[in-house]
Amino acid sequence: MSGYAYLAIRCDADGCYAETHTPGHVDTYSEVRRIRRESGWRTRRAPGRLLALCPDHATEASR
Predict the structure, then answer these.
(1) Which element (helix H / strand E) includes 52?
(2) Cα(54)–Cα(63) distance, rounded to whole angstroms?
């Protein structure tokens, strides 16, 4: 028996429950970032951590 897990990512904006995931196996975080960018997700810096933001909140954060 074999299997693998896929990465699920939730939006870090307050009150947002949006979620995305990788469509299959990925070997590097660079691949995850590329997949997320293609669907509009962005990563923003916050004090002490990185935030994953869905397309709705990524545009708000860039203003």
Answers:
(1) strand 49-53
(2) 15
Output the CA angle 12-16-63, nearest 5 degrees: 70
Total-model pTM: 0.69
In this structure, are residues 5 and 48 in contact, taking their beta carbons and an 8 Å threshold? no
Tens of pLDDT along 49-58?
888 899 998 8
CA-CA-CA-CA torsion sign (53, 56, 58, 62): negative
**Using DSSP, how many helices (H) and how many strands (E) does the chain show?**
2, 4
Q: How far apart are CA 12 and CA 15, in angstroms?
A: 8
